[in-house]
Amino acid sequence: MKIRSPWWLVALSFLAVSAVASAGKMPAIGDRLVDLRLPTPESAETREYLGLPPGEAFSATAIAGKILVIEIFSMYCPHCQREAPAVNRLYQAIQDSEPLRDRVKMIGIGVGNSTFEINHFRKHYSILFPLFPDEDFTVHKAIGEVRTPFFIVAALGPNDNGRILWTGSGSMGSLETFMARLNDLARDSAP
After folding, report:
1. Which end of the chain is more exposed for a tag (fewer CB within 10 A), N or C?
2. pTM confidence score
3. Cβ distance 105 to 140 under 8 Å?
4. Which domain holds residue 40?
């Protein structure tokens, strides 16, 4: 007996394969961070935290510091919503750490989210670090359409401008483990 596949199943398979083939490469340790062009924050306080002059757009690698922690999130993602308190604790722990405060910066990129949506997420979850919209999925596509939440830790500075040091999908894990990782990475990237 010959089994025939429905034509729509074959067509769907081709679409799925072509969608994966057209996506960017998922970030891996040692890769360079793709050129993430983000809108320059209007807030002078946020620009100061990131070490940015006023302007229209900037590359994530232009952020002042030695290490950049990026959370890829969506306000509609239940896992991102659940992870928000932990990510807030991470940001606060970085700010409370004398060795890390000026060396490690943190941002969030809301995939498929408008400025209105990320501002709602920021307010609802009391997010203190800068969030940026990726309304048209440009960043999301460039980094391989990763699932949310997704974390990227990248080195900044002239010698390893955007070199990816760590990535993780889902929960960031325990605060103690993440802080130990950041301390080790900051020590390794010391001038």
Report:
1. N
2. 0.85
3. no
4. 25-188
